[in-house]
Amino acid sequence: MSLIDHPDAKAFILHWGEMGSQWGVNRSVxxxxxxxxxxxxxxxxxxxVDQLGLARSNVSTALKELQSYGLVRRVxxxxxxxxxxxxxxxxxxxxxxxxxxxxxxEIDPTIALLAELSAxxxxxxxxxxxxxxxxxxxxxxxxxxxxxxxxxxVLPKGTLVSLMKLGGKVARFVLPRxxxx
Length: 181
Fold this sequence. Notes:
There is one protein chain. The protein has 181 residues and is mainly α. 64% of the residues lie in helices and 7% in strands. The protein has helices at residues 7-22, 27-38, 45-52, 56-68, 91-123, 129-152, 157-166, and strands at residues 43-44, 72-76, 83-87. A hairpin with a 6-residue loop joins strand 2 (72-76) and strand 3 (83-87). Helix 2 crosses helix 4 (56-68).
């Protein structure tokens, strides 16, 4: 019995594919990631093709994308010449890898462009002041988020978990205490 034959595994795999399309990746990339995540053994591409009913070329492309994110790695199985694939199973590690790659692909180029625009606008006295101010403010904002991310990403996983569990309660450590009336 393959994983896709179990109704709950199938529901997870199909949903992960749908969520993948919401997150900006191809549906099959999400489904392949989900299948490998749930699998208790490394799978070769033909296993994935057979279980998900996808085209071999689609599987190959999706595996390359998942490897570029560091979510899937190629492994060798003794006695089999084919490449097999396995997924990272630690959700925190997956989050950190996805975050790092999305920052590199999306946020870093945006910061670079905003820095360039801010510098040009600072020297361009003919630019509308509100355009200069808004682009500069956006550059500062996204740069601050990126700096925060760089500081947080190196924290130990236990610290990250504690921070997440604190949620909004973390504000009591940074907001001034109100005086008792």
